[in-house]
Amino acid sequence: CSELCGPKHGFMPIAVEALPRDQFEAWVRAQPGGTVGDEALAEEDAESAQDALEAGDGAAAAEAEASTPAA
């Protein structure tokens, strides 16, 4: 921080608002763009579906595919 903001970086004004989990999650969903977490989960689900297909487990592949969010 001090490299970017200088020696008084610890005195920068900030505001923290604590919200109940459901309100925070609604706020996150309302923000423009996605989150890195969303992309990582989508990739993980796609890899799970591919692994199941390669293993010949059609039921597991269908389940993994159904849980993968549309990009």
Number of helices: 4
- What is the quaternary state of this protein? single chain
Radius of gyration: 20 Å
Terminal Cα separation, in Å? 35 Å
User: What percentage of amino acids are in beta strands?
Assistant: under 5%
Helix-and-strand structural type: mainly alpha
Number of domains: 1
Main sheet specs: none
What is the share of helical residues?
A: 55-70%
Uncertain runs are none
Please report the total strand number as a whole number: 0
* Coarse morphology: elongated
Quick take:
By secondary structure, the protein is mainly α. 62% of the residues lie in helices and 0% in strands.
Verbal overview:
With 71 residues, the chain is mainly alpha-helical. It has one domain (2-67). It is built from four helices and no strands. It has helices at 2-5, 21-30, 36-55, 58-67. Helix 3 (36-55) runs antiparallel to helix 4 (58-67). It is elongated. It starts with a helix and ends with a helix.
